[in-house]
Amino acid sequence: MSRALPPPPATTPAGPPVARRPGGLLQIGSTPRSATVLGPGAPGAGGPEVLDRLGRPAGGVGVEARLAADGTAWNAFDPAGPAPAQRFAARAAAVVAVVGGGRTARLLLQLLEDAGVGALVTEDPAALPPARARPAAPADLVVLITHHAAHAVRADGLLADGVPHLSVVLRDTDAVVGPLVVPGRSACLRCLDLHVTDADPGWPAVVDAFVHGPRGAEESATARAVAGLAGLQVLAHLDGAGAAAVGATLELLLPEGTVRQRWWSAHPQCGCVDLPLPAGRPVRDP
Ligand SMILES: [Zn+2]
Question: How would you label 198-224 residue by residue, b for 16+ Cβ within 10 Å and e otherwise?
């Protein structure tokens, strides 16, 4: 016996959801911390002009529609940030390098390309079409993907040159996204090693074994979740939105998928935040 299914919900263009509340109120947005409730007296509270002000995309296909959807979402994430056109212009002018190949790197590169980042640099020639890579370009941000432990020595040159860099470490039962090091402004990878060594004097030997040891597996769901979490940090930084991983690590527990944020101060024996900033390279405030 067949049973009639209810009609599918009406499709809506990407944008903040809108709900009518009792008393003639209108709620815009679904997240309690960022939703807005408009009263019946607010301009446009009852009509489609509210929807227009929200910047819903007019439709379209392909790249333009995708970027319009991204612009609407980032407007909600970061309402004090740049307008969508400025946001995408900044991304289009940016160069991001991803160091450390593998599945997570390939997914992150694809994500950054989809999000409108202008030039991507990779060690993996198969990760991007040749036209997308710009091997000799100085990077605005470098993502360092390692297995089991971060390799602070590999970031020394970036620190000295004032290049912001995001550490991503794939470990046995979690993945650590961060810190996003803004040289001279926030704790660096060596600061973290010094903090851990304070609590565990054997840590340097463990790091040495890990960074010279075999790579770990990059499981399907983990690689996507890590690429997504890292991608949000990269885009927030490029947009000037203040990435959550500046001065912090975001620990993605596996297989639960829960994320714990841990804050790290600069270590007094490192001295990285006392270094003069290289001339000619503007560093965004975290
Ligand atoms: Zn440091």
Answer: eeeeebeeebeebbeeeebebbeebbb
C-alpha 239 – ligand 1 centre gap (Å)? 24
Predicted pLDDT at 37: 85
CA of 151 to the centre of ligand 1 (A): 13
> In 14-106, at which residue ranges do the beta strands (DSSP E only) sit?
18-21, 25-28, 36-38, 95-99
SS3 27: strand
User: What per-residue confidence (pLDDT) applies to 137?
Assistant: 72
Block residue for tokens 């500046």 = 246
Separation of CA 268 and ligand 1 centre (Å): 8
Residue 171's pLDDT is 94
**153 CA distance to ligand 1 middle (Å):** 11
Alpha carbon of 70 to ligand 1 centroid (Å): 34
Predicted pLDDT at 283: 46
Q: How far is the CA of 185 from the centre of ligand 1 (A)?
A: 10
Domain ranges (residues) in the chain:
62-269
Q: How far is the CA of 277 from the centre of ligand 1 (A)?
A: 14
Mean pLDDT of the region 89-115: 94
The CATH code of domain 62-269 reads 3.40.50.720
What is the reported pLDDT for 275? 64
